[in-house]
Amino acid sequence: MVFFRLLLPFFTLLPLLAHASDAGEFTAADAAGQAKLLETWAAQPSDQRLPLLQALQDGRVGYDDSKHPYIETDGNMVAADADTPATGEVRKLRLNNRLRGLVINALAAQQMLSTDTAVRLAAAQQLQRSALPGQIPALEQQFQGEPASAVKAALALALANLQLTDPAPQVRLHAVRLLGETGDPSAQARLESVLAADAETDASVRTAAQTSLVQVKRKLMVGDLLGQAFSGLSLGSILLLAALGLAITFGLLGVINMAHGEMLMLGAYATYVVQVGFQRLAPEALAWYPLVALPVAFFVTAAIGMALERTIIRHLYGRPLETLLATWGISLMLIQAVRLIFGAQNVEVANPAWLSGGLQVLPNLVLPWNRVVIIGFALFVVVLTWLLLNKTRLGLNVRAVTQNRNMAACCGVPTGRIDMLAFGLGSGIAGLGGVALSQIGNVGPELGQSYIIDSFLVVVLGGVGQLAGSVSAAAGLGIANKILEPQIGAVLGKILILALIILFIQKRPQGLFALKGRVID
Amino acid sequence: MNQPLMVTAAHKAGTPLAIAIGVVVAVLLVSMALLSLLPESNPLQVSAYTLTLVGKILCYAIVALALDLVWGYAGMLSLGHGLFFALGGYAMGMYLMREASGDGLPAFMTFLSWSELPWYWYGTQHFAWALCLVVLAPGLLALVFGFFAFRSRIKGVYFSIMTQALTFAGMLLFFRNETGFGGNNGFTNFHSILGFSITSPGTRAVLFLLTVALLAASLYLGWRLARSKFGRVLTALRDAENRLMFCGYDPRGYKLFIWVLSAVLCGLAGALYVPQVGIINPSEMSPTNSIEAAVWVALGGRGSLVGPLLGAGVVNGMKSWFTVAFPEYWLFFLGALFIVVTLYLPKGVIGLLKKRGDA
């Protein structure tokens, strides 16, 4: 043990010595020699040169009269080679543009050894632009050992860039095949330029390029399809959050709540208020404001919903069309009230850091975190609602009233109270949806209006009072929307979907999952 | 079950009074059109603004009447009548655009650098074909939609939602520039109709009188319908559709007929609206407009023929005044109107008057 302790300082010094001498070599060389050094370093990457290259890139390298290297740390010029005394004034090393480019390239080459995937990806992308033919062997080696598919694709492009201009057809052929293995959108452009007239003379390379192009296109299509399915699911989860509460109140009371969209809007504004509160009172915990906004939005909208049920909707039972008009009136007043309080402009609700950015799955497929989280959140709300409806006494009562109001009343279910609570629950769920919406879109007074028609269609399609119906209808509508969108445009897609729903209702007037019953008026 | 008010009215002694009021209103409207022809210096002259405003409200009144036919009588609340209104307006607008642009393309198409007219513009330079389109476009759409909707027995709130979605889809479609109807801006800058300048007092007066005539004709048509057996079947349909079916009636034909008739009336109203107001754009199709028409009918009184006219007049008159005097509070007022009418005036103003008359 003692022996090792004695040796330890020596081991830690070793890398220092190594790059210290690199630095010495660099400062001692003239411009041509420096360029040569940088090219060699780029071709033989090593972890130890990273600090030096970083310093070179940042312009923190200096030298004294005897060309001894210095690296600026925390504003002080520190001698890089420990044992050499300073001779004369330390001056900053100035690099010309060519050298600067070489430094960036060499730095990227060293960064390819990093354990951080993001750093490697950025480095590989830099290499696509700047790599030199001498780096081909090192890049080949890294390409073989690279675990992350995105980095691998970027590396393949960097390699192919170098090899496509090679005079030997064999090397070009290899490059073209390599491109075929990536799923990067820019690989497609590269291959197409190879195939362009007169660009490539060798027949075998041309054929290989064609095969590769087909391969790339297939991979891109997979990414596109997955992307569409994902954005469809994402839209579906939002529609679900919007429609879930509506399905409960519509199933229970048989009334359409036109002000339901405004509950979404109020939920989003509640998020805004919570965010502002955090900014003023607890800026250090700002990142977690959406978690606080959830209960706030739920209780605010639930309270408003219950108040509306008590004061207005209760008096209109048995007159569904009148309820529709009255709730429309409520929605107009809520919109105008919000406009007067918060202004007609959109308010700014910012994503916290943990909800921004995305997950790169394929080269052309990034899943934004906020959408991933919202899909998960929608599932969570569905599960919670299911538990509430199926495992609690309140849920039992709600289901009883939905199925047969009079019979439930005869059995002692307080239908009036249940109506109020269920209305509060439906509004509260919409409030939760509003929190989710605030994280992906604009928050303005008309927020709810754009979702209300779609969420009604979910309810119509899914059938009344059935969670499974709402879930599958929301997911189906969302995915259908997003798949039709790129083919025929968003508007025609919407119209087509409406037509399909009308035709579908011909077949199943009660929606996807009809409640079985023999009630007729 | 409630009889349509006009049926009741026809049996009661109130008829002479109703006719007298009708005649007075008609005379007032006609004289308004004539007074607008007077020179501006004359104190009795009716300004072009007033005439346009009243003409606009009369067009809305026709829409209200048409909506009342399907809602008040047949019990189907349509939230998509704005679509039919706008379709009629667009059909007329196509003619007016062609008239304004002469042999060339309408201005908005030149901006889009289109070289020829889309096929559905074919023949729109002829006034007669434009008139046919005014009837056909809303009529056929209503026929197709109604056929499928009534076949699968969509009713109640489902029907309302589907019609609302329909007009929403129409609005999205017409907002697109590629649809070929001027996109966001719609049609405007009309010059003439049948060679007469569209801004001249004479043309305005004639259009106004035509609107009055159409309103009177639809009122008469509604009255005849309500008195007929057809009207009774519709009312039965509204109150107990299943019982009606058990009595051996097939409700689909009745529904479809009144639905298409109502859509065509809306289309005609739209066709008269556009030359008077001088603009048509997709916002006429917005769900908000259609649902506002429902509150005209509800305020005036469903199931009566005069009620919707009264409602359209009162609400639109108020709107003109409110949006100038207190623009921020108009939506509060309108929202409150929706709530108050549904909570406290289920039969509308007419119902209130009738109750007072009975007491």
TrEMBL record, chain A:
Q: Which residues form the signal peptide?
A: 1-20
Give the keywords, sorted: Amino-acid transport, Cell membrane, Membrane, Signal, Transmembrane, Transmembrane helix, Transport
Membrane topology summary? Multi-pass membrane protein
Q: Where in the cell is it found?
A: Cell inner membrane
* Keyword Transport belongs to the record: yes
**For this UniProt entry, what is the primary localization, expressed as one broad class?**
membrane
Where are the membrane-spanning stretches? 235-256, 263-282, 288-308, 320-342, 369-389, 456-480, 486-505
| Claim: Transmembrane is one of the keywords in the record | yes
Q: Which family does it belong to?
A: Belongs to the binding-protein-dependent transport system permease family. LivHM subfamily.
Q: Which PANTHER family match?
A: ABC TRANSPORTER PERMEASE PROTEIN, BRANCHED-CHAIN AMINO ACID TRANSPORT SYSTEM PERMEASE PROTEIN LIVH
Q: What is this protein called?
A: Urea ABC transporter permease subunit UrtB
Organism, per UniProt? Pseudomonas typographi
From TrEMBL, chain B:
According to Swiss-Prot or TrEMBL, what is its membrane topology? Multi-pass membrane protein
Q: Where does it mainly reside?
A: membrane
Q: Where in the cell is it found?
A: Cell inner membrane
Q: Does the keyword Ribonucleoprotein apply?
A: no
* Keywords linked to the UniProt accession: Cell membrane, Membrane, Transmembrane, Transmembrane helix
Record CDD domains = TM_PBP1_LivM_like
Q: Where are the transmembrane segments?
A: 17-39, 46-67, 73-92, 127-150, 157-175, 205-223, 256-274, 329-346
Please give the superkingdom of this protein's source: Bacteria
List the PANTHER family hit by this protein, alphabetically: HIGH-AFFINITY BRANCHED-CHAIN AMINO ACID TRANSPORT SYSTEM PERMEASE (PTHR30482), SLR1201 PROTEIN (PTHR30482:SF4)
What's this protein's name?
Urea ABC transporter permease subunit UrtC
Q: Give the species.
A: Pseudomonas typographi
